[in-house]
Amino acid sequence: MQGRRILLIVGGGIAAYKTPQLVRLMRGVGAAVTPVLTTSGAQFVTPMTLSVLAGEPVHDTLWDQGAEAEIGHIQLSRQADLVVVAPATADLMAKMAGGLANDLASTLLLATDKRVLIAPAMNVRMWDHPATRRNLAILQGDGVLTVGPDVGDMACGEHGAGRMAEPEAILAAIRAALEPGALAGRHVIVTSGPTHEPIDPVRYLANRSSGAQGTAIAAALRDLGARVSFVTGHATVPAPAGVQVIRVETARQMRDAVEAALPADAAVMAAAVADWRVVNGSDQKMKKTGDLPVLQMAENPDILAWLSRAPQRPRLVVGFAAETQDVTAHATAKRLRKGCDWIVANDVSPATGIMGGTENAVTLITDHGAEDWPRMGKDAVAAQLAARIARELA
Ligand code: C5P
Question: Transmembrane stretches, by residue range (predicted)?
Answer without folding.
Answer: none
